[in-house]
Amino acid sequence: MVFRLVLGCGTVGRQVAERLHEYDDTGRDRLLVVTDDESIVEALRDESIPARHADPTDPSVIANIESPDVIFIASDRTDVNRAALEDARAKFQTASIIAYLGGNATDADRPAFDDLADHVVDAETAMVDHILDGVVCPSADAAIGLRKQLSTIDGRLAVVMHDNPDPDAIASAVGLVDIAAEVGVEGDACYFGDISHQENRAMVNLLGLDLRNLSPTDSLDAYDAFALVDHSRPGVNDQLPEDLHVDIVIDHHPPRGPVPGEFVDLREHAGATSTVLTDYLSRFGLEPRVATATALLYGIRIDTNDFTREVSPADFNAASVLCPYVDTSVLHQIEQPTIEGETLETIARAIKNRVQRDTVAVASVGRISDRDALPQAADQLLAMDGVETTLVFGFRDEMAFLSARSRAADVDLGETLRDGFNRIGSAGGHADMAGAQLEIGILASTDDEDEVESIVSVVEEVITNRFFEAIETRPGTSVGAYTQTSEWLFTSGEDEGSA
Question: Which end of the chain is more exposed for a tag (fewer CB within 10 A), N or C?
């Protein structure tokens, strides 16, 4: 339930109150209008809108009102609005306040309004449009909820990305840390694993992003609250305890299980989590730092493949919001890093080792030290003539890492990989890009290199056959004859695959 308080009810306030009442389809939200115009109070009550006859500038009037989530200050007079604004901000420090400047503003009024209100509007039409389009909508209510949740945190916040984070996860974590700082909560952008992709490292280094690399043995006692970005469950594609109490979850991926968290925002229509964080920055009235804006725009571009993959109007809108603050020269440097020789070798092995059936190509690249080379190899295979779907996989320590890409309209890679590999590992992703990781427990039982190579050869065949069969049998989940062949080779992992 959201409690909205309207202080003052001139021309703008009357329209706002009536439309807010009209838009509350659920009947769960609460609305109260306070105005010194008795005729307006009677008219609003006739429309079943709660209204109180009182002076909105009298501090004693709001003294007994329970904490509202949103306050609209909407008298026609600037002096009345300013007095109401000063009292409301002093009384309700965590509320989101939208203030109408009124019709008799002086040069001294504007800075006072800007300092105390989250949003200032100085035209009647703009005021109504802003509230109805920007505050009543679900994302505005989410911003209210996020502010409330952040205000409950007493101590330091850990904003945790998924393992081996991509640009979208990194940018989203940095963005949430900036938002938390705005409400007085100190936080760290944290991740487990490595940032090994050369473009990702370039982004972090060139923008000077402050990240904390955690190891599984690190104590989490320094943190009093936890937020997850670009993934939604602790212990799944991160190395947090599965039973960890999570305060905030912000993601754009469809959940594959119950999502814990005091505040949860899953926007599956958005092409990137960075889009969601950009919306929050805008809702909080914050101008993003250059480094944050550049990272967020890069995160959106990567996750939407430069606005060509699973893109939504929200992604374009976020890009337009960020563009004035982006350092384009740094962005160009991030996008043009030096490609390491090992990555080129991985791509070459994928091309050489590929097995193709119709428009589907699968390739093992053997042992790898950089798992981020796999999606680049999968992209390169997809660029080959006659190929519409690719899977590239490799081995590191006792794990097999898989990366898949598709441009075929009838293929959903996220579901395909889950069908093929969730019983022997962990998989997930989108329709056109997905990943999986499988723990090859049997490798730990031998030091004999010949035996290891023999096992790897069998695993390569299992992975290849499982993928082809999963492609052919969608939407079913059976993997037929290959199930018994492979169960003994793997011990089930718990991390969702990173695309």
Answer: N
82 in Cβ contact with 101 (< 8 Å): no
Q: How many CA atoms lie within 13 A of 45 on its CB side?
A: 11
Q: What is the DSSP string of 302-351?
A: HHTTTTTSS--HHHHHHHHHHGGG--HHHHHHHHSPPPPHHHHHHHHHHH
Output 343 or 155, whichever has higher pLDDT: 155
Per 3-state DSSP, the chain is made up of helix, strand and coil in percentages (nearest 5) of: 45, 20, 40
Helices (H), 336-442: 341-353, 373-382, 413-421
- Supply the DSSP string of 144-207, one letter for each residue: HHHHHHHHT--S-EEEEPPSS--HHHHHHHHHHHHHHHHTT--EEEEEES---SHHHHHHHHHH
User: Looking at the predicted structure, is the pLDDT value of residue 204 above 50?
Assistant: yes
Residue 316: its pLDDT value, please?
A: 92
| Confidence category of residue 495, pLDDT binned at 50, 70, 90 | very low
Per-residue confidence (pLDDT) for residue 478, from 0 to 100: 35
pLDDT at 488: 46
Domains within the chain, CATH numbers bracketed: 3-136 (3.40.50.720), 154-335 (3.90.1640.10), 341-487 (3.10.310.30)
> Which residue, 468, 466, 408, is CA-closest to 438?
466
Strand partners, 434: 404, 429
pLDDT tens by residue, 225-235:
999 999 999 99
The model carries a pTM of 0.59
- Tokens 């290959």, residue located: 482
